């Protein structure tokens, strides 16, 4: 489920969720604040796919492994 497939919509994949999260990381953010923003956007139908907290963590690990985000001062920050 990392990449979309014939039966998995892009927003349901970790790649799509990662793209969404990258749009939210404009400054140092805690994992809890990212989760709260996602829950808020999900409730307002601004993001259509439902993900678990485990998927959030897996997506952050994925983004970290490809060098897009890093940990700084206990939060997540986008790499330049």
Textual characterization of the structure:
The protein is mainly alpha-helical and 80 residues long. It has a domain at 26-78. It contains three helices and two strands, in the order αααββ. A two-stranded antiparallel ribbon has the order 1-2. β1 (69-72) and β2 (75-78) form a beta hairpin. α1 (14-24) packs across α3. The relative contact order is 0.20. The mean pLDDT is 93.
Low-confidence stretches: none
Radius of gyration: 12 Å
Which percent bin holds the helix content?
40-55%
Main-sheet strand order equals 1-2
Strand content: 5-15%
Q: Ends: how far apart?
A: 27 Å
Question: Helix tally?
Answer: 3
Shape label: globular
**Largest sheet descriptor:** 2 strands, antiparallel
Mean pLDDT across every amino acid position = 93
Give the structural class: mainly alpha
Tally of strands: 2
Order of helices and strands: HHHEE
InterPro entries: ABC-3C_MC6 (IPR046897)
Pfam family, one: MC6
Essential attributes:
single chain; 80 residues; mainly alpha; two-stranded antiparallel sheet; 46% helix; 10% strand
Summarize the structure.
This protein is mainly alpha-helical and 80 residues long. It has helices spanning 14-24, 31-43, 53-65, and strands at 69-72, 75-78.
Helices, strands, pairings?
Blueprint lengths: L13 H11 L6 H13 L9 H13 L3 E4 L2 E4 L2
Antiparallel strand pairs: 1-2
């Amino acid at each position: 489920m990392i990449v979309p497939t014939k039966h998995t919509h892009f927003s349901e994949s970790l790649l799509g969720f990662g793209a969404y999260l990258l749009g939210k990381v404009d400054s140092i953010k805690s994992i809890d604040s990212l989760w709260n923003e996602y829950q808020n956007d999900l409730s307002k139908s601004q993001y259509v796919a439902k993900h678990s907290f485990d998927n959030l963590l897996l997506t952050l690990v994925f983004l970290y492994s490809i060098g897009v985000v890093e940990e700084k001062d206990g939060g997540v920050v986008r790499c330049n």
